[in-house]
Design a protein that fits this description.
The complex is a heterodimer of chains A (122) and B (106).
Chain A lengths: L2 E5 L3 E2 L5 E8 L9 E8 L3 E10 L3 E5 L7 E6 L4 E6 L8 E8 L6 E4 L3 E5 L2
Parallel strand pairs in A: 2-11
Antiparallel strand pairs in A: 1-3, 3-8, 4-5, 4-9, 5-6, 7-8, 9-10, 9-11
Chain B lengths: L8 E4 L5 E6 L9 E5 L6 E4 L13 E6 L2 E6 L8 E9 L2 E4 L3 E5 L1
Parallel strand pairs in B: 1-9
Antiparallel strand pairs in B: 2-6, 3-4, 3-7, 5-6, 7-8, 7-9
Classes of the chains: A mainly beta (122), B mainly beta (106).
């Protein structure tokens, strides 16, 4: 049974970097069939996919256009986890952040983390 | 960017059928997934590849997709089905989510 456990601060100051980690159990971040995603949810934006990292003989990333200049998603194979960094945050980045496992061929996002509420405020 | 439109709300009586629509341009050419999100919880996938149910999802949940519209059907709705529901597709190297539908069972 695959589980994702999120960790990270719930409060970030404007202009600083938001950092979250998602620890994987029951699967591998280096899986050749899975992709590891970050999604956020806010009343104004609804569910918004932010990006993903995945391994297919080498590491790849895809990022949403809306955050592409500010986002980094990285795998950590030694700890079997992956992370999100979002730079230069503003109050508009306040949201619940989720990590999730995705697949290929229309299988969608089948396992989700518990969610982390992140508030951007001074 | 690709857009998916859902009705804001749907009401259904217990034991009756609820249909939730998701509209998008040439949606039938894409695979659609559906997620259920109860208050204060993470989303849970209830349909993938248009019509398939993940393990553990009750048979009363079914999906279809054709033309410009996909539909999630809850047959014999129960009180426990009250939640927000979101459709989702993969388009231009991005996941795209629908606007969400609140299902009320009363």
């Amino acid at each position: 049974q695959v589980q994702l456990q999120q960790s990270g601060p719930g409060l970030v100051k404007p202009s600083q970097t938001l950092s979250l980690t998602c620890a994987i159990s029951g699967d591998s971040v280096s899986s050749n069939s899975a992709a590891w995603n970050w999604i956020r949810q806010s009343p104004s934006r609804g569910l918004e996919w932010l990006g993903r990292t995945y391994y297919r003989s080498k590491w790849y990333n895809d990022y949403a256009v809306s955050v592409k200049s500010r986002i980094t998603i990285k795998p950590d194979t030694s700890k079997n986890q992956f992370s999100l960094q979002l730079n230069s945050v503003t109050p508009e980045d306040t949201a619940v952040f989720y990590c999730a496992r995705g697949g290929e061929g229309g299988v969608g996002l089948d396992v989700w983390g518990q969610g982390t509420t992140v508030t951007v405020s001074s | 960017s690709y857009e998916l439109t859902q009705p804001p709300s749907v009401s259904v009586s217990p034991g009756q059928t609820a249909s939730i629509t998701c509209s998008g341009d040439k949606l039938g050419d894409k695979y659609v997934c559906w997620y259920q999100q109860k208050a204060g919880q993470s989303p849970v996938q209830v349909i993938y590849q248009d019509t398939k149910r993940p393990s553990g999802i009750p048979e009363r949940f079914s999906g279809s997709n054709s033309g410009n519209k996909a539909t999630l059907t809850i047959s014999g709705a129960q009180a426990m089905d009250e939640a927000d529901y979101y459709c989702q597709v993969w388009d231009s190297s991005s996941y795209v989510f629908g606007t969400g539908t609140k299902v009320t069972v009363l």
